[in-house]
Specification:
The chain has 400 residues and is α+β, with helices and mostly antiparallel strands. The chain is built from eleven helices and ten strands. 24% of the residues lie in helices and 13% in strands.
């Protein structure tokens, strides 16, 4: 249902609380599979009753679920896409505001395609504002729920989301990798300083479909993250391996070692999984077709248990950034990305990009004994194959 003004009572709810019986789940009305699987797994972990409320409408923009105050904060000046479910605030008015009187423990969210757009058909809506509109919607919901329940709903209740799944193999537009990045407030992972008490399950390696059939995959990842972040079960993973450092193996900057926060399964070597930006900035590369800005580089193999080596020899000699999985459909199939954690949970490395400044750390600086930070990581070292090679490169450096 839609509403032009905030409603006090929910419109169109057709059922009271119900057990997930087969006759209900198999009906035409049904229920969100991800939500159900998420709740089921929480029940198995916590052994307490789990109540689930579904309030959803497919193919909608984040602005429709947001309050006027949230959109004003982000500088949204339009009214949305249409006068129906994609009008700003209409779903907030009809499908969220009536629920504010209920004390909730948290929320999960799966949305973004309609803001990203469908290249060649629909250009998307306010994709460049999604970093603000999504994170601000979360904070607005928290504030409104806490106020309406007089603090019974936590002011920082946990919020989980699914990072966009793959869709098509087109490479003319990079709208979907941009939107995935914006889902994390342009950080690449959650929680972070902007998105506190937020958790994520990537679906980038789900089956290739606008509506992936394997709903268990993201639901399980959401539940693992929730039990870690919210319920203190730190043996469950909150995230997959995170980018820790990007370092040069040679002074020509054609060999890069990418280090992660935990050990990895042996890398699956495929083309166009790592890429460098051959324009002045990664933002510029995002605005042109793949191959014109971002260009694929070669995976050489594992450098260590938690690091992989890539070669830029096949791409441009001067580049401003390095990225991983920066395509609408960046993997070859279900659970078939190059990099996964080597533990039993097998979480993937999620898409990321990192700026590279090739003006840093020239050898002339290294030999003077001055600090030689590598990229933006602040690390003061170059990776070499031998001890003598390291000595030759930075013998005078005080940190060597």
């Amino acid at each position: 249902q839609i509403a032009t003004e905030p409603q006090e009572e929910a419109l169109g709810f057709y059922n009271s609380w119900s057990k997930p019986r087969m006759e209900f789940l198999g009906s035409g009305d049904s229920f969100s599979a991800i939500c159900l699987f998420f709740g089921e797994q929480l029940w198995e972990e916590l052994q307490v009753p789990i109540g689930l409320i579904e309030s959803t409408w497919g193919g909608t923009i984040v602005e429709a679920w947001s309050s006027p105050e949230a959109l004003e904060y982000c500088g949204v000046t339009d009214n949305g896409v249409d006068d129906g479910q994609n009008h700003n605030n209409y779903l907030w008015n009809a499908m969220i505001h009536p629920l504010l009187k209920m004390t909730i423990q948290g929320a999960i969210w799966y949305q973004g395609e309609q803001n990203a757009g469908y290249p060649g058909e629909y250009e998307g809506h306010n994709r460049d504002l999604y970093t603000c509109t999504f994170s601000t919607m979360i904070e607005s919901w928290r504030q409104e729920w806490s106020t309406a329940t007089r603090g019974d709903a936590d002011r920082k209740f946990p919020f989980g989301f699914v990072q966009l799944a793959p869709f098509t193999n087109q490479r003319d537009s990079l709208a979907w990798p941009q939107l995935r990045w914006h889902q994390t407030a342009d950080v690449g992972y959650v929680p972070n300083d902007i998105m506190e008490n937020v958790f994520m399950a990537t679906a980038v390696d789900d089956d290739i479909d606008l509506h992936p059939k394997n709903k268990r995959l993201p639901a399980s990842r959401l539940a693992w993250a929730a039990t870690h972040l919210v319920y203190g079960m730190t043996e469950r993973p909150l995230t997959g391996p995170l980018l820790m450092a990007v370092s040069f193996k040679n002074t020509e900057r054609t060999s890069i070692v990418v280090t992660f926060s935990e050990n990895l399964d042996p890398v699956l070597v495929e083309e166009d999984r790592f890429m460098v930006c051959c324009l002045a900035s990664t933002d510029e590369c995002d605005q042109v077709a793949y191959g014109e800005g971002w260009q694929g580089v070669t995976i050489e193999g594992m450098y260590s248990d938690n690091a992989v080596e890539v070669s830029t020899a096949s791409a441009c000699s001067t580049y401003s950034g390095l990225a991983y999985l920066w395509l609408e459909t960046p993997c070859s199939g279900e659970v078939s990305c190059p990099l996964y954690a080597s533990d039993e949970y097998h979480l993937p490395v999620v898409p990321w990009k990192s700026d590279v400044d090739l003006s840093l750390c020239p050898l002339s600086t290294a030999y003077t004994g001055q600090p030689i930070p590598i990229l933006e990581t602040g690390e003061l070292f170059l990776l070499r194959d031998t001890q003598s090679g390291c000595h030759d490169t930075c013998l005078a450096h005080p940190e060597c």
